[in-house]
Amino acid sequence: MATQNEWYTVLCGTCSYILPERYQELTPIGQDAFSAVIRATDTFHDWYTLDKVIKRRKPFPEDHIRQIIYSIVRGLKFIHSAGVIHRDIKPANIRIDEQSNITVSIVSMSKLRYFT
Fold first, then answer.
1. Which among 32, 63, 88, 97 is annotated as catalytic?
2. 112-115 contacts: CB < 8 A, separation 24 or more?
3. Mean pLDDT of 94-110
C-alpha cells in the first residue's frame, strides 16, 4: 500500500486524479458525456487473475476466502472514496499474487462519480 508521500495529482481534462506513484503510464484517451477517460497502467509482475487461480487450485479454505473478500471490499472502498464506481466486478478483474495480495483492476467499465 502506498504511503502518503507516494501519491501525486494528475490533471486530465477538467478532472484531477490522485494516484500512486507506482503507475507507470497515465494516458488521456478522451472524454465522454460524464467524465474523462484515462488509462492507467500498473506493473503486475507475478500477478494472476482470481478466475484463473480459482480454476487451477483446490477449493480455498474458509479463512482464506474471508481474507480475499475483505481485501476486495477494502479495495472497492478505496476506489469509491476516490469517486470512481467500478461497474464490472468479477474474478477476471481481481488480481492476486503469490502472497495473496489483492488488487482490484479498474477497467473501462469504471465511471467517475463526481468531478474534483
1. 88
2. 112/15, 112/34, 112/35, 112/36, 112/83, 112/84, 112/85, 113/80, 113/83, 113/84, 113/85, 114/83, 115/14, 115/15, 115/35
3. 74
